[in-house]
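Our platform keeps sequence and structure together, in a single record for each protein. This encoding replaces a full spatial description with a residue-level series of whole-number codes. We quote a single record here, exactly as it is kept in our systems:
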Amino acid sequence: MARIRKEEALRWLSERLSGLSPGECLDFLCKKRNRLVRVVRTEEGFRLEERGFFRKDFEAEGEKEVLKLCERLFSREFPRSHILWAHRRRA
């Protein structure tokens, strides 16, 4: 589990997104670990899960769409956070 700055989260995500195999995911959590944004690689594309202030799931086809959605979700779920916990695991 890595601690990363919120400003670097999108860059960290873009570097690791192409290396995900189907069934793997990247989790981003706030310091208290009570809010989560998860990016899951599926056979068709990506599934994004938002667990925190809101509980929604999103579907995305490509990496650009994932980055755009994550930028919006990070600002919505982590409005006052400066540091995020990020890790890669099996979904």
User: Anything to note?
Assistant: The first strand starts at residue 2 and ends at 5. Strands lie at 2-5, 24-29, 36-41, 46-51, 55-60, 83-90. The mean pLDDT is 95.
